[in-house]
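Researcher: Next sequence.
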Amino acid sequence: MAFDGASAGYKRALGGVIAINAVGFVVVALGSVWAGSASLAANTLDFAADAATYGLSLWAIGKSVQVRSGAAFIKSGSLAAMALAILGFAVWRAFVGAPPEGATISGLGLFGAAANLFAALLLVRYREGDANVRSVWLCTRNDLIQCLAVAATGVAVMITGSRWPDLVVGVLLAAIFLRSAWQITVQARQELKAATAGPDVITHSRQSSASV
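Model: Next structure:
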């Protein structure tokens, strides 16, 4: 049976990760407004969504498969919604506004990378589990990759003096979010289907044994 997060150690780790994401949201949101960056906007939305959905994950621990799968579906939906919002912002920025502030982008990207590296270290031993647990790990791993990409984007913006590196990275990050949303949805559906089919499978097995 897949690990469902019902351990004191995992709950403490998840609580720490929620706090990290809440602080990250405040810091990066302020920087995103200052820099006018699509990649930082992606980062800001991600910190906010993670703090909220990880709280949902914590609440769902120990509950039924249906509830835990429902929490995973909500996280999947939030990732997909963020991806669409980022794509829309990137398209708007492609036609409007000056190049973003590269130094701010890189600095906040490195800040986010450090925050998510700490979060990943807290969660690495819990990277395998049910859809609810695994979705937390996938989101944290994506966040670390995303923040490193944001930091590199700032350097590219400073070198080129163009908004395009920022917009391209924003679109790529949106694609990563969509892929993770799909992975979480598929696993949650499989677990929900298995939980629903379980009693029928057991009954059928007993009937077969009795007939033998």
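Model: Residues 164-211 form the longest helix (48 residues). The chain is about 85% helix and 0% strand.
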